[in-house]
Specification:
This protein has 59 helices and three strands. It is mainly α and 1131 residues long. A three-stranded antiparallel sheet has the order 1-3-2. It is found in: Cytoplasm; Nucleus.
Length: 1131
């Protein structure tokens, strides 16, 4: 291809006509088969004097074919071509004057260098860049810094020896360079280097640069260089989250500078700069909260918090908030100030934040200017979440003082109404309990249909919508009993609003809010709402039909009212249940089926979302009866779940252009990739995934026809989605998909559980994907969800009859597994994956403790550490529970895996020098293998000394776990436990009679020690007979209810077996009878629990064992409550 033809092809690639552009793309793709020719042709264009548009495109294409394409042309190019590329790129950069092209070429040089520098394939680059950094040509200095920004990872790993000399001097000089954009490029390059460093020690070697960074920011401000200043603050924000501690030495200078940037420039077009400066301050507060709390005289809060109040004064006088939302695309200063106050108050804590905030609120609330009152109430809505309950009245007092329209601007009244809703959300249910009467009265007043004197109609509508929103917030965190006295008044007002008609947009909006409030009331009241069903359903149905008619007539109205009405009807159905809804459900579902196939559904995101969620609620309401609607719902639900919402961006400029042009697009950096995210699609996808997870859980075996397809859709999303809720829904669905297969096969009779069984195949597939997700998931909450799902998948495959119903589980524990579905290799893989999670948890804890050892923590930081420790403890408990489930479901196959992969770790963690929390975790694992794995009971020589060592601990949970383990060893270990009987009894007897044994904090541990003593006494005859009555005197157990029930059942079993402690020693029989009578009188157990039935049977047995005269004596010695309990039993 001649040069002229190549130029024409480039022009065609920029053509508006698709056919021309597509043909050019095909020609270029074919040309790439010749790497050398393609690279040299692109370089020729870049070096030429052609149009900047063509040269710019050539620069983009060169970067793409060198680095970005799946098959890089660089690796296929001849050595001479590679040499030409490197030389020509530097040559062109030396003389290029077009800033955009120069930037693209710098990026190409930087990306190419990142891939070949470490192999020593571009020795000329760094000397050239260091020469340019001292050049008198400002473009050279900027270009060099942009290249350094691109090769920051190489610098972080291969140039550490030069950090204190060459590299630091480079940045010192460049950050203080006032010409062009050098200082900004220096800050960007340094920021990328900082983000590329793994070790804090390496990072802190650059702290001498901090004064220069401050100088650069100050110079940009003084020189009026707004664009550079804004971009520099964006860099700071990105650095503060991971590296706030790096900036601590200059915070006392950086904060006042940002305060100045927020405070000045209100009328000089610096809107974005003020907001970014506030975001820097917020980032400092969130990521260096302790440093902010340590400012002298609470200086950070005193300087910064007034700025947020001042920003909230920038409120428009003539419009309602609703009109403002419609009119403005940019975030307002009111929003910036409010959000900043909320985030900083939460980060810094109420002790430092509230006194200043309350002082400002009082000052602003008493100001005659309504804007100040508005700012005061707006501030209250942001900080109410951290207000201690003891100071709640002070907040409520301010709100009620401004909630009536007399003498107050409508906007002040509006935000006061909003504050009532926020109080209900953040301080509920305490706020509802103390102020329900006043709040409901105010909200009912503003929900009235009649116009208010001296209030423009637009504000009447506005007050109604805000009152309805506040009502919904009030109801959502309210106890049904508290709503009950107001139900008729509330429903009357809501029906009046529903009957307004919706000729105007305002009336339609009020109806939408009224229907939403009705949904909340139904959800709050639950089944008791059934008595209002006949009053509520007809107007809702009429509203739905009216809305549908409008849609069919294509009147151009929003589908929101139709969607909200669908939501309300489905929530009412969920609340009252199918018994009340009856035949009406079929009518609504038929209407939804028609909507599902309508053109409006296909083209309207709002309607699709509401309809999908309504289907899911009907599924939960009707359970298996809903299955016949699955063919209607599933195609669109699967389509929504399979939508692509995340796209990798190839070019920075393309990314910026798309971001600017489309508000629905967000840009995220994920795993070193730039990703464009369509937020509306992502939200719809998340809703669909949640619906799929919910439906399979509700329908179980009825969902079986869709299991394979849904599994294929959801399993990749456990790892590939950036959306937390999508990952969570996909993870949570896995156990229910396994259960659906298990229960479906169970319906067709027992199936052989070999490697080809569908259940085994499904289990292997889901566990593999879950384990992979566990290895990549960054969020601890989702790590816990994954481990719970792993446990549930196995349980559902092994025991499909026990399908997770907690009520049934309490009454009918799952039967032991007869079939072990996982082999040795699979169990080992699971255990190894869980051990990695445990090691990471220990590492995080070690890092926190090391930090705490060298830093002085304040109260808020100590509270945060307690929260972190609690989260890690919960994660470790779930991990141990998951391992215990493996022992329970694989009693013979798991113990060899335990010996190979876990035993050494357990023996290491249980040592006396280890943390008591770690020792407890190790004992949990020992308890599980002793309880479920018979081969483990042959290893009591390993486990019992370990348990005896731990049971003497002063840490109650460890003593409790070790006592439980000793009880297991005594009951299940047989003769192997005999050598340890005397020493164990002696130690446990000492513990249960210790000074603190029956203190509340030690009660559960003592209960388990008492239970262990009982296990030994009932299984070994060598102990003195006098111990049994002394042991009975320690009963009943009052702390650990679960262990108490198990112990009573063992005692009842001894009664039925005529155990020697009763048959050989009849004097013990009355004591046991009295004990059981005492337990009955205390009502420790429900009558439908198995333990209650065991006691009933044992008491009948004891009655036959006790002579009448003895029985009479025992009866007389009992309390009236015990006598009443026995009388009721034997009546």
């Amino acid at each position: 291809m001649e040069f002229r033809e190549f130029e024409e092809m480039l022009w065609s690639l920029m053509a508006a006509e698709n056919t021309v552009r597509n043909h050019a793309e095909m020609v270029f793709d074919n040309m790439k088969a010749d790497s050398d020719r393609t690279l040299l042709s692109l370089l020729h264009v870049i070096r030429s004097t052609l149009s900047d548009d063509v040269r710019s495109l050539a620069a983009v294409l060169l970067r793409r074919v060198l680095i970005r394409d799946e098959v890089s042309l660089w690796t296929n190019a001849a050595a001479s071509t590679q040499h030409s590329v490197k030389n020509d790129l530097l040559h062109v950069l030396t003389y290029e004057t077009n800033r955009s092209i120069r930037r693209k070429l710098c990026d190409t040089v930087g990306e190419l260098a990142s891939s070949i520098l470490e192999e020593g394939e571009w020795d000329e680059l760094l000397p050239c860049m260091f020469q340019w950094i001292t050049s008198t040509n400002v473009s050279h200095r900027e270009s060099a810094l942009r290249v350094f920004e691109m090769i920051s990872l190489y610098m972080a790993t291969c140039m550490t020896a030069y950090f204190d000399t060459t590299i630091q001097q480079l940045f010192q000089t460049s950050l203080r360079d006032g010409e062009g954009h050098v200082a900004l490029h220096a800050l960007r390059a340094f920021g990328m280097l900082l983000l590329s460093l793994d070790e804090l020690d390496e990072r802190d070697r650059f702290q001498p640069l901090l004064p220069s960074i401050l100088h650069a920011l100050h110079s940009m401000h003084v020189d009026g260089n707004e664009e550079d200043l804004v971009e520099a603050m964006e860099v700071l924000i990105e650095l503060l989250e991971p590296h706030a501690s790096f900036f601590k030495p200059i915070l006392k200078e950086l904060v006042p500078l940002m305060v100045v940037l927020v405070s000045t420039g209100a009328s000089d077009g610096s809107f974005g700069r003020r907001q970014l400066a506030m975001e820097v301050l917020v980032s400092i507060a969130e990521n260096a909260a302790s440093a902010c709390r340590r400012f002298p005289q609470n200086g950070f809060v005193e300087q910064v918090f007034p700025l947020t109040f001042h920003l909230m004064l920038d409120v428009n006088e003539d419009t309602t908030g609703d009109e403002m939302d419609d009119a403005e695309d940019d975030i307002s200063n009111v929003d910036v100030g409010a959000e900043a106050l909320q985030r900083m108050a939460q980060a810094i804590g109420f002790k430092k934040a509230l006194p200043v905030s309350f002082g400002l609120v009082s000052q602003y609330a008493s100001h005659p200017d309504w804007k100040y009152q508005y700012a005061a109430l707006m501030a209250l809505t942001q900080i109410v979440e951290i207000v201690p309950s003891g100071q709640l009245h002070a907040v409520v007092k301010h709100v009620f003082a401004h909630v009536h329209p007399d003498g107050h601007h409508p906007k002040v009244v509006s935000v006061a109404i909003d504050a009532l809703g926020q109080l209900a959300t953040d301080q509920g249910p305490l706020f509802q309990e103390q102020y329900h009467e006043q709040t409901i009265s105010v909200l009912l007043e503003y929900m009235q249909v009649t116009d208010r004197p001296n209030v423009p109609p637009k504000w009447t509508w506005h007050f109604q919508t805000h009152a309805l929103t506040a009502l919904r917030q009030f109801i959502d965190t309210c106890h049904p009993d508290m709503v009950e006295p107001y139900l008729e008044s509330l429903l009357g007002s809501l029906f009046a609003l529903l009957n307004l008609g919706h000729a105007s947009a305002e009336a339609r909006s009020v109806q939408e809010y009224a229907v939403s409030a009705l949904s909340s009331i139904a959800g709050c009241c639950g089944e008791s709402f059934g008595r209002f069903f006949s009053m509520v359903f007809p107007p809702l149905k009429q509203l739905l039909y009216t809305s549908l008619q409008e849609l069919q007539q294509d009147t151009g109205v929003s589908t929101m009212l139709c969607g909200i009405t669908l939501e309300c009807i489905s929530l009412v159905g969920l609340a009252v249940g199918p018994a009340v809804f009856g035949a009406d459900a079929t009518e609504i579902l038929d209407v939804m089926t028609q909507m599902q196939h309508s053109a409006q559904y296909a083209n309207d995101e709002i309607l699709r979302s509401y309809l999908l969620q309504a289907w899911a609620r009907w599924c939960k309401t009707l359970t298996h009866h809903f299955a016949r609607y699955l063919p209607v719902v599933m195609p669109s639900l699967l389509d929504a779940a399979m939508q692509q919402a995340e796209f990798e961006m190839e070019d920075q400029d393309d990314m910026e252009d798309q971001d600017d042009d489309d508000d629905d697009v967000q840009i995220a950096h994920i795993n070193d990739k730039c990703v464009s995210i369509r937020t509306s699609i992502l939200e719809e996808k998340a809703t669909a995934c949640q619906m799929l997870s919910s439906m399979v859980a509700d329908l179980k075996e009825s969902f079986f026809p869709y299991v394979e397809q849904v599994t294929q859709v959801l399993t990749p999303l456990m790892t590939d989605s950036v959306h937390t809720e999508i990952r969570a829904a996909s993870i949570s669905a896995m156990p229910w998909l396994v259960l659906s297969v298990s229960k479906h096969l169970l319906q067709h009779g027992p199936a052989p559980m070999d490697s080809l069984s569908p259940v085994v195949q499904m289990l292997e597939f889901t566990l593999g994907r879950l384990l992979n997700a566990l290895s990549t998931e960054p969020e601890l909450d989702l790590q816990m969800t994954i481990m719970q799902s792993i446990k549930m998948c196995i349980s559902h495959a092994v025991n499909p009859e026990h399908d997770g119903d907690a009520t049934v589980a309490a009454k009918q524990p799952p039967k032991p597994s007869k079939v072990e579905l996982l082999n040795h290799a699979q169990l080992s893989q699971l255990v190894e994956g869980l051990l990695i999670v445990l090691a990471e948890s220990f590492q995080r804890r070690a890092v926190r403790r090391a930090r705490k050892a060298i830093e002085e923590f304040d109260d808020e930081e100590n509270e945060a550490e307690l929260d972190n420790d609690a989260t890690e403890a919960q994660l470790q408990f779930i991990l141990a529970d998951c391992l215990g489930n493996l022992a329970e479901t694989h009693p013979s196959r798991f113990f060899p895996v335990f010996q190979e992969t876990l035993l050494d770790k357990v023996l290491e963690m249980v040592q006396p020098h280890c943390l008591p929390e770690d020792r407890k975790l190790a004992v949990y694992l020992v308890d599980d293998v002793l309880e479920h794995c018979e081969p483990a009971r042959e290893q009591l020589a390993t486990f019992v000394p370990l348990l005896l060592n731990c049971v003497a601990s002063d840490y109650p949970p460890l003593r409790q776990a070790a006592s439980y383990g000793l009880s297991l060893a005594a009951r299940l270990g047989g003769g192997a436990f005999a050598p340890y009987v005397n020493s164990t009894v002696e130690l446990l007897w000492t513990l249960v009679h210790g000074a603190d044994a029956w203190e509340p904090f030690m009660l559960n541990a003592t209960d388990n020690a008492v239970s262990a003593l009982g296990s030994i006494l009932l299984h070994f005859d060598s102990l003195p007979s006098t111990l049994f009555p002394q042991w009975l005197a320690l009963l009943p157990l009052r702390g650990d209810v679960e262990e108490s029930a198990a112990l009573v059942q063992r005692l009842c079993a001894a009664v039925h077996a005529s155990h020697r402690v009763l048959s050989d020693y009849p004097s013990n029989v009355p004591s046991v009878l009295s004990l059981l009578a005492e337990i009955l009188s205390l009502q420790l157990f429900e009558s439908d629990q198995p333990v209650f039935q065991d006691m009933q049977s044992a008491l009948h047995k004891l009655r036959t064992m006790v002579p009448d005269h003895v029985m009479k004596s025992v009866w007389q010695s009992m309390s009236s409550a015990q006598q009443a309990a026995l009388h009721a039993l034997f009546a």
